[in-house]
Write a structure and sequence with these properties.
The chain is an alpha/beta fold. The chain folds into 3 domains: about 270 residues; about 240 residues, P-loop containing nucleotide triphosphate hydrolases (Rossmann fold), CATH 3.40.50.300; about 170 residues, no CATH class. It contains 31 helices and 23 strands. The strands form 4 sheets. Strands 1, 2, 3, 4, 5, 6, 7, 8, 9 and 10 form a 10-stranded mixed sheet that branches. Strand 17, helix 25 and strand 18 form a beta-alpha-beta unit. It is elongated, with a radius of gyration of 38 Å.
Length: about 750
């Protein structure tokens, strides 16, 4: 048999260690696994395991060379046993020799530890009842350190060599007889556990070159009790090195002894001479679902318990139980949302995507299924002559009042979340009165710019009161008493203070163009009921984050109102909110609480739940059925670990891109956590052309529909100066229909 040190033998070498906590426990697990594995090989089959440090570079290497009648799968067996401590292995033939005659010593049992002092058979049972030990058997000792790696890495040229092989049945029987005769049952009653799976084993430590052996000897002797190191002469080393299988004959060891004399390297810091890496994230299979989900929406792929990769499908009704997606920037959230949009469109499920920067809308447009392209509507708020969003475009007076009330709550959450008086009852009363007056006077033509224009001048408020006096005299009196008739400093400071809260809506010309036209560009209720798709680019790079957040909140309010007036609640519609930490206020908590009853689901994507408002966090915990976590930060991973049934935190912070830990509602039943893989949708030239066509079609539509400029102070003055404002309804019409008009048909 060619020795393990020869370069002609195929050798298994560790490429990198696993860098993880508790190295001593992981090493013990790997050592037990290696002993049990080799014990089941044919008698005499074994491996020569060498941990060595290079004399020049100090680089540490771990190798295993086979000898004897090893099975064809010997390398896979050893690699599997090493898995707790070794991250990667490779086959090699270039293993340097340990040298012809290094200074070496063998780890053996210490005969001086024998406790038998009386040899007469007559007195054995008296002095040592129950056959108490005549020999002290070695036991492993564990300390919280990477013992083997630490011992070798600090000694260039040092090595620890362990020959381990399967015993013969005769050796096994002889060992059992010896143990029964000499085992100390009073100190260690469980003989069977110590015997375990016996193996042939010899451990040798040594050094090549001029280094001293004392430090390595001291470290190795601490591995177990009742052990000592016996120096080897040159002939003994040559016999072991040239024929390791023959050198093991008769050296059978109980498992307890073997675990005291065998050490594998392990590390948690990666600073001990060997390459190391965090443990690869293991596949976790997905639970099977009853029946077949043939018309579901694909979220990605996963492995089954049988190892087969399958698509992860959920029914649209399960998405109506809501989905929370978290992950660091660049971990795969946007790709997941793009893939989700692609499969929603393929399945014919309508959706709304709210996205802040435009890139997500670009990707989603390119991924749309061709069959859904005609029903897709895109809004680009960052572009001139874009779509219009009007808070007052609502024909039902009660719903319009609800919209105004929700908008007031929205302003308070933005500027005064903790109720410190920055936006208090006075501001709420001021804004609500003006909205009531503008709605009554201007009806379907009312906009937020009407409110702001009138609010800026007490004289305009007085003219507004005159305009509504015939229709609603009580409202007219409140407008005069609380706003128009103010005098002195209060008449100057109140409008400036109050209007400042709406700066994100009026601070830019582009924003005035969005909120300053009478008719919404998109009838959200109609779009939802006909199964359409709405993609909204909130234009944060152009408008600024504050304005984009305000527009996003207005869109959510529109969906909240549309939810209650749906006529096709059997047709699911999914609202997807990307970067939800920028929309931590408004209608999201209400949608989570109520949308499912109306056939709507919410997908919330954000970097971290800790960045969300407490109300939204509570809504997610109480109402969201499915959770997907891409790579997370250290501060947020523990909370996700709890939701994912204890998924290790150190894995959640190391998930590769496009991999996520997930638990989903499928057919109303939550799955066990599994590993989800997301793929980027393929976008070809035809898809890009389709996306450009949708963009162009919608831009042309908004340009034709809203060709005029937004409302100005001059327009407001002209309307209020007229004997009767152009859109002021008569009393009978107001009593019958309210001050608005039915919503016109829109996209």
């Amino acid at each position: 048999m060619t020795p393990a040190t020869s370069t002609a033998v195929s050798v298994l070498e560790a490429d990198a260690l696993v860098r993880e906590r508790a190295p001593h426990l992981r090493a013990a697990e790997a050592e037990r696994s290696l002993v049990r594995t080799i014990a089941e090989w044919p008698a005499g089959a074994g491996v020569d395991v060498v941990l060595r440090a290079d004399q020049r570079s100090g680089r540490v290497r771990l190798t295993a060379a086979p000898f004897g009648p090893v099975p064809a799968t010997w390398d896979r067996d050893v690699a599997r046993a090493w898995e707790p401590v070794v991250a990667a292995t490779r086959r090699t033939r270039s293993v340097p020799s340990l040298g012809g005659s290094p200074r070496a010593a063998e780890l053996v049992r210490d005969p001086a530890r024998s406790r038998r002092s009386i040899e007469e058979p007559l007195f054995r049972d008296v002095v040592f009842p129950l056959g108490a030990a005549a020999v002290a058997w070695p036991l492993p000792a564990r300390e919280p350190a990477a013992e083997a790696l630490t011992a070798v890495s600090g000694m260039p040229g040092g090595f620890v060599r362990t020959l381990i092989a399967a015993p013969t049945p005769i050796e096994h029987a002889m060992l059992l007889d010896e143990l029964r005769e000499t085992w100390d049952r009073t100190a260690h009653p469980d003989l069977d556990a110590y015997l375990g799976t016996p193996v042939r084993l010899r451990t040798i430590v040594g050094v090549r070159g001029g280094g001293g052996l004392a430090p390595l000897r001291g470290a190795v002797r601490s591995w177990g009790t009742a052990l000592l190191l016996r120096d080897l002469d040159g002939d003994e080393w040559t016999a072991i090195d040239s024929a390791p299988g023959e050198a093991l004959a008769g050296h059978i060891r109980p498992q307890g002894w073997a675990l005291a004399a065998l050490r594998l390297p392990a590390t948690e810091r990666g600073d001990a001479g060997m390459a190391s890496r965090p443990r690869a994230i293991a596949e976790r299979p997905i639970d099977p679902v009853r029946g077949t989900v043939s018309d579901g929406v694909a979220l990605g792929t996963a492995r089954t318990a049988a190892g087969r990769r399958v698509r992860v499908l959920v029914e649209p009704a399960d998405l109506c139980r809501h989905l929370f997606v978290s992950g660091q920037s660049g971990s795969g959230k946007t790709t997941f949302l793009t893939s989700l949009v692609a499969d929603l469109s393929r399945a014919g499920v309508g959706f709304t995507l709210l996205e802040h920067h435009g890139s997500g809308v670009d990707a989603a447009l390119g991924a749309l299924a061709p069959a859904s392209a005609e029903r897709a509507v895109v809004v680009r708020h960052g572009r001139p002559d874009g779509a219009v969003l009007n808070l007052f475009d609502e024909s039902d007076p009660d719903r319009r009042e609800q919209l105004v009330s929700e908008f007031v709550d929205l302003i308070q959450q933005i500027f005064d979340r903790h109720g410190q008086g920055i936006v208090g009852p006075r501001w709420r009363r001021w804004f609500t009165l003006l909205c009531d007056g503008v709605s009554t006077a201007f009806g379907s033509e009312a906009t937020l710019l009407h409110v702001l224009s009138i609010a800026s001048d007490p004289e305009r408020v007085g003219r507004l009161a005159n305009a509504v006096a015939e229709t609603d005299p009580d409202l007219a009196r409140r407008l005069r008493r609380e706003i128009a008739d103010l005098r002195g400093d209060e008449a100057v400071t109140l409008p400036a203070w109050a209007i400042s809260k709406l700066q994100p809506l009026i601070g830019q010309r582009a924003m005035r163009g969005i909120v300053g036209h009478a008719q919404d560009s998109v009838d959200v209720t109609r779009l939802i009921d006909r199964g359409g798709s709405l993609l909204v680019d909130l234009g944060a790079p152009t408008l600024g984050s504050g304005s984009a957040r305000m527009l996003g909140a207005l869109w959510l309010l529109k969906h909240w109102v549309a939810m209650g007036r749906r006529t096709r609640r059997d047709r699911p519609h999914i609202v997807i909110v990307d970067e939800a930490h920028l929309l931590t206020f408004g209608a999201l908590p209400a949608l989570l609480a109520e949308a499912r009853k109306f056939g709507m689901g919410v997908v919330i994507a954000t970097q971290s739940m800790t960045g969300l408002a407490p109300e939204l966090q509570s809504g997610i915990e109480a109402n969201v059925g499915s959770h997907i976590s891409f790579r997370l930060g250290l501060h947020t991973a523990p909370a996700s670990s709890v939701r994912l049934d204890g998924w290790p935190v150190d894995e959640l912070v190391r998930l590769p891109d496009l991999r996520a830990a997930a638990t989903l509602i499928r057919r109303g039943v939550p799955t066990e956590p599994f590993l989800l893989t997301v793929r980027r949708p393929e976008v070809d030239a035809a898809a890009r052309a389709q996306a450009a066509d949708i963009d162009r079609r919608c831009a042309d539509l908004w340009r034709r529909r809203h060709s005029g400029p937004p409302v100005t102070d001059r327009d407001v003055d002209a309307a209020l100066a007229a004997p009767s404002p152009p859109s002021l309804p008569n009393v009978d019409e107001w009593l019958a229909h309210g001050p608005g008009r039915p919503i016109r048909r829109r996209a």
